[in-house]
Specification:
The chain is an alpha/beta fold. Helices cover 39% and strands 12% of the residues. The longest helix is centred in the middle third of the chain and has 21 residues.
Length: 189
């Protein structure tokens, strides 16, 4: 069994990796991407994931561990293996704002598309991913809302712990949630 943390970029995947690590799970990560202003607690990524389409031989190293795989790459996972997926969901306005802020802090520009078009692309992609995951019985999936993790970490950590078999240290998972890092928030009406 491989545990996968997934979602769009800037949807809370790094936070979830931190929670699972603090909760007692072994993670598959390297130090290729260092903590920075955008993710001061670290990204907890495994660089080989980026080449998943060309090379998936590293998946054996992920057995019994947690690995972060961005949602666009989930389609590249072999469907003859067993996975439990924690899929992070975040308000698309927040995702777009967080990505824009990150690019600005890095001194880069994003693709020349409007926020509306980007949200349309993300909406279609998320629908495609959910449909694809539902078609494959080798994927057990829980959808976790980023906002709820920040606002109700106790309840969300308990749900995640139940999904993963009930052996995590929920108090340590909760303790690593830092609401100060929730910088891009959806506007409430």
């Amino acid at each position: 069994m491989i545990t996968v943390v997934s979602g769009l970029p800037r949807s809370g995947t790094s936070l979830m990796m931190q929670m699972l690590m603090e909760g007692g799970m072994n993670i598959l990560a390297d130090e290729a991407r260092k903590p920075d202003e955008n993710n001061p607690k670290g990204y907890l990524e495994f660089d080989k994931v980026k080449q998943l389409k060309e090379d998936n031989t590293w998946l054996d190293q992920a057995e019994g561990k947690v690995v972060k795989i961005i949602s666009h790459l989930l389609f590249e996972l072999p469907t003859d293996m067993e996975y439990q997926v924690i899929f992070m969901v975040r308000d698309l306005d927040e995702v777009v704002a967080s990505q824009s802020s990150m690019l600005e802090r890095l001194g880069r520009q994003g693709a020349p598309v409007t926020d509306i078009e980007l949200k349309r692309v993300f909406t279609k992609h998320l629908s495609d991913v959910k449909e694809w995951l539902a078609r494959h019985d080798t994927f057990r999936v829980i959808y976790v809302n980023h906002h709820e993790v920040i606002e109700s970490p106790e309840a969300e950590a308990a749900k995640i712990n139940d999904f993963l078999g009930g052996s995590l240290d929920v108090d340590k998972m909760i303790a690593c949630v830092d609401a100060r890092l929730y910088r891009e928030r959806a506007k409430t009406s």
